[in-house]
Design a protein that fits this description.
1115 residues; alpha+beta; Serine Threonine Protein Phosphatase 5, Tetratricopeptide repeat; 5 domains; six-stranded antiparallel beta sheet; 32 helices; elongated; Trafficking protein particle complex subunit 8
Length: 1115
């Protein structure tokens, strides 16, 4: 196989971009972890010198100074300014790349640690931890050179017993590991790390001699350095003199770097060790049951790849995903990790590197400058020239192969035209030898990319991906596609979403994920894709790519990807998708034992679901948050939303939510919580001042909403008009009328002013409790909550009330589910309502009080858990429309229904009972002009004497009151009528005196006449108004509606005027079906005649003689 490499004639095209990389270019390369790797191999003496600064390795010591601005030449001599950041790794300790046996555990711990940081709440876990840690620890693959070492720095201490011997030993270790074959591949580095891989057969080797200025021998150090320089050349050797002080008070640039680098490593390795031991024990138990001679090794003897690495998977692209996470047997590598010594050593190193102590305390400013100069010298004078030389040499080799490559290229394209280019899973993988043109081209492209030659490397990736495609090497082709997309973005200044080849990344993900079963490579590709596409505004496409990966990844990986996808949906202004995928991410995080991340995702999803009609999704989110959140107040808020009135859950689930809500309140110790159920019809609250009336009729029954016009048809008569006339009749017209002793208050009365209530009588509140749930609710100890108690001068609050009325237990019936065919849960039925009455009895020592709430013990639907709490009572006044501002802002007036002032004196109290047909029903069907007799019985039930009783009515011609007279006969009460047509009857003083003493009684007769004409629901208002000797008044209202119909039809005729003879034709109008029930007997007839002279009425008796007899004298 061969490939076409651009010739010198195309140099201008290839190297057209020679400007310095922008900040975004540098950041995307660093965030993807695509940095040149340099291995560091120190001796024990060198580590001791570094540890004096609380730094465990030389690689960590120089890490803050790893970025250097330099100029790099491409193979054609074009200079390009770039900023090279080197990733120094101590390959003998903790700086190696992690194998996939431990990488998931380390990432799990990294995510767990970062999720607890305060600053984490404002960022995604993708940006704050996962991406950087994955890119830093991800092991090298077999399809590229991006995670292989270009150079190795050997570091020794001049104070060692045999520095030259130590250096020789280190060099031999590296050489053996690189060139010694499979047996020695794992000879360098800890067991939990993947074996180091090397960029070139002949890497750059650099030698460093450390001299401890404080404790070392400078003369000996110079001597050792001279020997090293003589042996390996002065150009690749350098001596560093550090530790010039004991306690330097300088900034600590290592703290953040080391903390982010090693966080989660210690606990992650321990987690991996435990998992490995558990699975190994399980495998041994299974092996004992089958009695095998030995366990099957995880890797072949000739393989250099570690167990479950991407390298081993690259050799067999069809390995399923579970293979990366399942340990079925043991090997020498696995046993090293499981047995613990190597891991324990690395854990301690990681712990020290991640400590909170300061670093570099023995390094002066000069020492730090020396470290910076060392890194700069190494990069500019050794590494960059070495790379330039290698790129030029490798490019020349490929150029020489170009001619023969072209001859094979056309033949290969012709032969491959008949074959399908569609990848088929399960195909035998293709491998390339180290000397193959494709492999060398990929190496050249990776080297050029790592040192900022993005245009040149893009051309190489474009060429090599075609060769991989023709060979159907899908794994290699996917790797070339992702790098071609990345270098295209980095080398283009004006790349937009319209001209970016999105299919490069889509195809690469498909090859890694589906064709070659390489999910970790797919995750790396997704990281690159996110960094590119999010910068050019392709948020939706990026999110869809991340979602594709979640079907085959673990819960932790899937949760991280879903959370990032949700953030991308938010940037794409697709808020419902964002919320939905936050819910999915929260679920996967919960499955991955990441409760903090799970709660965060649910919390971010909640605003999009709350009160948006997504009832079941909202319940799922709120239930999770109320269970897992550590904030007790937030838990209660979430649990409160589970018992919402509009719940569509089934009855069992509603009951479970209510019990969970109550148990949560009990566990958190919430004092007097505000319950959300049952509901209260606030504006239907009715207040009754005192003991009477015992039962308050409905507004329509009492006629408060119905208006009665006066005779002149210009003024509307209301109850207040009757009360005013009765007041002046009993107390005199000069005394100003005031509504001081009200009966009740509700939404129809005037409630602007605070009203008075009598002392030592019940102040009663009627309120409707609504149960919107489909399960019954149990309430206990229901009572009124009182606030703003103001006592009269000289009294304490303990004397305010003599009784608080309490309902011991009340079960609110459930709201029935709709059962009619065709009805769904979206059709809400009428909620169950229960009318209750609560009261308090104030004393005359109390001046003012307010009712604020209903207190009760909420026992849920079963009564098992009782939590004391309250429901607030708040009422709004009438809507105001007077001004434009009031109409626009929906302004409401003041409503003082729940505020009361206690009278200083007792009120008079009569027990008034009405008997008779008209008193038995609020609505009467009568005949025109029919008369009804009603007995009115009075009884004084208080110790206040009655001084006056009046009865007023708005039907003066149809109502009359009679009282007993001295001669045991009944006589009409004296009455007066005002111009508005209101009649007031005054009861005689002699009869009123019967009610002076408590227990005194009096009976009156009331006659009610039906109108002569036919009417329907004609309202009669009758007000009984009585005054006590202490000046307080009280009233009793009685109203009745009459509907009339005609009974008789009378037609008179004059037969003989001279003989005064006439006839009257009388007909019973009751229908035949009702004739048995309504028979009329004519008892007496009389005539009225008006004389022409005196205009006086005369009653003339008329004799009756039946002309036609029908059923005797009955008609």
């Amino acid at each position: 196989m061969s490939t076409s490499i651009p010739s010198n004639s195309s140099t201008a095209t290839i190297t057209s971009s020679t400007t310095s990389p922008q900040l975004s270019v540098e950041s995307i390369v660093q965030q993807c972890g695509l940095l040149p790797l340099v291995a560091v191999l120190p001796s024990n003496g060198a580590d001791i010198i570094c540890k004096k600064n609380n730094i465990q390795s030389f690689a960590d010591l120089i890490s803050p100074f790893s970025s250097v601005a330099c100029v790099v030449k491409d193979p054609y001599g074009q200079q390009q300014a770039t900023k090279v950041k080197i990733d120094f790794r101590d390959i003998s300790k903790s700086g190696c790349l992690l194998g996939l046996t431990v990488l998931p555990s380390v990432l799990h711990q990294v995510v767990s640690i970062v999720s607890t940081l305060p600053q984490f709440q404002s960022t995604e876990i993708w940006n704050s931890a996962f991406r950087d840690s994955f890119s830093y620890w991800f092991e090298p693959s077999d399809i590229d050179f991006l995670k292989t070492y270009l150079s190795c720095i050997f570091v020794i201490s001049a104070d060692e017993e045999d520095p030259i011997g130590e250096l020789t030993k280190l060099i031999q270790q590296q050489h053996t590991q690189q060139h010694g074959g499979a047996e020695s591949a794992n000879s360098l580095g800890p067991a939990h790390c993947a074996p180091p891989k090397w960029f070139l057969p002949n890497i750059l080797k650099y030698y460093v001699v450390l001299h401890d200025v404080e404790d070392g021998n400078e003369e000996k150090a110079n001597e050792i350095f001279a020997k090293v320089s003589a042996s390996y050349g002065s150009d690749c050797c350098q001596m560093l003199k550090i530790n010039s002080t004991v306690d330097a008070d300088l900034p600590d640039p290592w703290q953040q770097i080391l903390e982010q680098r090693y966080r989660g490593l210690e606990s992650g390795l321990e987690m991996a060790r435990k998992k490995l031991m558990e699975k190994t024990a399980s495998a041994e138990s299974l092996a004992d049951s089958t009695k095998p001679s030995s366990l099957v090794p995880l890797s072949t003897p000739n393989s250099m790849a570690p167990v479950f690495s991407t390298s081993s998977a690259a050799a067999n692209p069809t390995v399923p995903l579970s293979a990366h996470y399942t340990i079925n047997s043991s090997s020498s590598t696995v046993q090293q990790v499981a047995n613990g010594p190597s891991l324990t050593k690395q854990v301690s190193i990681a712990s020290l590197s991640n400590s909170r102590h300061s670093h570099g305390q023995c390094l002066t400013t000069t020492d730090r400058e020396q470290l910076r100069d060392f890194v700069e010298k190494f990069i500019k004078q050794s590494l960059v020239p070495f790379v330039e030389k290698q790129i030029t040499a490798q490019n020349d080799i490929l150029q020489k192969r170009q001619g023969i490559g072209k001859s094979f290229t056309s033949m290969r394209k012709w032969l491959s035209a008949a074959s399908s280019s569609t990848p088929a899973p399960g195909m035998q993988p293709i491998s390339y030898g180290p000397e193959s043109t494709e492999w060398q081209t990929r190496r050249l492209a990776d080297m050029a990319f790592l040192f900022g030659m993005y245009t040149f490397s893009h051309q190489l990736y474009q060429y090599v991906k075609k060769d991989f495609l023709n060979d159907q090497a899908w794994l290699y082709h996917g790797g070339a596609l992702e790098m071609a997309a990345l270098t295209l973005y980095l080398s283009s200044n004006q790349l937009t979403s319209k001209n970016f080849p999105l299919y490069y990344l889509d195809n690469a993900l498909n090859y890694f994920l589906n064709t070659c079963m390489q999910p970790m490579l797919a995750v790396r590709c997704a990281i690159i894709s996110v960094e590119i596409l999010s910068r050019i505004g392709m948020h939706l496409e990026t999110a869809n790519q991340l979602i594709r990966l979640t079907s085959t990844l673990s819960d932790l990986f899937s949760g991280v990807l879903l959370e990032k996808a949700s953030a991308l949906f938010s940037q794409a202004k697709m808020y419902r998708r964002k919320a939905f995928h936050y819910v999915l991410a929260g679920h996967r995080f919960n499955q991955a034992s990441q409760p903090i991340l799970s709660l965060k995702c649910y919390d971010l999803a909640a605003p999009e679901y709350l009160d948006k009609g997504w009832s079941f999704a909202e319940d799922h989110i709120m239930f999770t948050l109320s269970h897992e959140s550590k904030d007790s107040q937030y838990q209660a808020e979430c649990a409160t939303k589970l018992v919402k009135p509009s719940s569509l859950q089934f009855m069992d689930q509603q009951a479970a939510f209510i019990e969970h809500y109550l148990k949560l309140l009990a566990r958190n110790g919430t004092k007097n919580p505000l319950f959300v159920i049952p509901l209260i019809k606030a504006n239907d609250i009715r207040i009754i001042y005192g003991e009477k009336p015992e039962v308050l009729p409905a507004p329509d029954d009492e006629g408060r909403d119905m208006k009665v016009r006066a005779k002149d048809d210009t003024q509307i008569i209301e109850w207040e008009d009757l009360e005013r006339l009765a007041f002046h009749s009993g107390l005199g017209s000069k005394k100003p009328f005031k509504h001081g002793c009200p009966m009740f208050s509700d939404s129809t009365t005037k409630n602007r002013e605070k009203k008075q209530t009598p002392p030592f009588e019940r102040f009663r509140i009627q309120v409707k409790l609504i149960n919107p749930m489909n399960v019954p609710l149990v309430l206990r100890n229901i009572r009124l909550g009182i606030k703003e108690i103001q006592m009269r001068e000289g009294f304490l609050e303990t004397d305010a009330f003599i009784e608080h009325g309490t309902i011991p237990e009340l079960v609110l019936p459930r709201t029935e589910l709709p059962s009619m065919p065709g009805m769904t849960l979206q059709t809400y039925p009428e909620h169950s309502e229960t009318l209750i009455e609560l009261h308090v009895i104030p004393t005359d020592k109390l001046l003012h009080f307010s009712i604020s709430s209903i207190l009760f013990d909420f026992c849920g639907s079963t009564g098992a858990t009782a939590i004391p709490g309250h429901l607030p009572l708040e009422v709004k006044g009438r809507r105001l429309y007077k001004t434009k501002e009031q109409r626009m802002k929906k302004t409401y007036g003041t409503d003082n229904r729940l505020n009361a002032t206690v009278s200083e004196k007792k009120w008079p109290l009569l027990n008034i009972e009405l008997s008779g047909q008209a008193a038995r029903s609020p609505e009467i069907h009568a005949y025109s002009s029919q008369m009804f007799q009603v007995l009115v019985n009075f009884e004084n039930v208080s110790d206040v004497s009655i001084s006056s009783i009046t009865v007023s009515t708005d039907q003066p011609e149809l109502v009359s009151i009679s009282e007993p007279s001295d001669d045991t006969k009944w006589s009409l009460c004296s009455s007066i009528m005002n111009t508005n047509g209101i009649l007031v009857h005054s009861i005689g003083k002699q009869n009123v005196n019967q009610l002076k003493e408590q227990g005194g009684k009096l009976t009156l007769r009331m006659a009610i006449k039906a109108p002569d004409e036919i009417v329907e629901n004609k309202l009669y208002r009758i007000l009984f108004f009585y005054i006590g000797e202490n000046g307080n008044v009280r009233e009793f209202r009685y109203s009745v509606k009459l509907t009339t119909q005609s009974l008789l039809r009378c037609v008179p005729k004059v037969l003989k005027e001279n003989y005064q003879l006439c006839t009257i034709d009388i007909k019973n109008l009751i229908p035949n079906r009702d004739a048995v029930l309504a028979k009329v007997e004519v008892i007496r007839l009389s005539a009225f005649m008006v004389t022409a002279k005196e205009k006086e009425n005369e009653t003339i008796p008329i004799g009756i003689e039946l002309v036609l007899k029908r059923n005797g004298k009955q008609i």
